Sequence to fold (366 residues):
Amino acid sequence: MTDSLQQFIEKVTGESHLRVEQDFGDGFVRLRSEEAERRQAKHDVRKSEDIVIEMLRNSRDAQAKRIYVASWKEGEVRNITILDDGCGVPASMLSRIFEARVTSKLDTMRMDLWGVHGRGMALFAIKTNADRAEVMCSKLHGGTSIHVEASTTKLGEKRDQSTFPVFSKDDTGTVTVRGPKNINRTVLEFAYIERRDCDVFYGSPAEIACALWLHAKDSLTQSEMVFSHDPDEFDVCDRIALAATPEEFSRIAETLGLPLSARTARRIMNGEISPAIDAFKKISSPINKKAGKGGTHNEAFTLEHLCKKDTATIRMSEEDRSRFCTSVKKAFNELARAYYLESDVEVETKICKGKLTISIPIEPLL
Fold:
């Protein structure tokens, strides 16, 4: 590519061109290595709980309003299926989204309490650490279902996965959470923090399937359920409502990443199994009660502190640091001229404890 053509492309596409290595269309791109490094995560995927939070963040960023989390264990294998009613994944990207630096968040990268999200590394890290990770089904503007299987002997998790956290509030209004940092707590913390943007439902495959079935039967018309025979025509979270028999229910649930026997499906259809409920209703202690003392094995913290963004982990690349210092030096030149100060100075930067400190020596002009 000639220099003139390269300059023309950069002039037309601006900063986006410099951040992108490959454009897949439909809003998906592969970031350049430098851009992915700038969007570093607060932590890598090291345990089952990390898989859950990364997938929840993906659903949230896909503009999902309802997120369903099914989690169960078979021997030493942790199974996690997350379904949502978000924007979906194009057919051409179903396997590619698990590749490194592939993202749809070129201009919507965001910082939340778990770090930077939008590097195109979360699903790649999940795929790398898990035994299986795949998109079970997806529809553009109609949601997605992703299933992950991970060996707990290789990717650990909290030993106590049965305890639910206790949310409580003291006289000052401070919300405190107590309990082991297991999958239950991960889901409920996310549900609490993102409560204004989405609802989260959490339970076993049967409980999630029941919740999907009941909600879809309320949202779909009778004619849609009677005269439609292809579940793929419907949004992911509505497909199970098309089942007319337990066997069909079980088959559709399997395609969603929710393994059920026909017997369990029959019990759901007969109303013998309760649906997964909004995650807030799983809080074991009312949030309006005063905070009590936690057990010796439990950890407690305040959500007010948790919700503060941690900026201390940012690493500025040498290229960005140099560009920033040059801009600061240009701004300082005006001040230097006004007060007869030396303008040819070295600007220094330091990032520590959530602060960016800029040091500029002040020397009189001789």
Observations:
- The CA atoms of residues 211 and 275 lie 5 Å apart.
- DSSP finds twelve helices and 15 strands in the chain.
- Confidence is low (pLDDT under 50) at residues 39-43, 291-298.
- The first helix runs from residue 3 to 13.
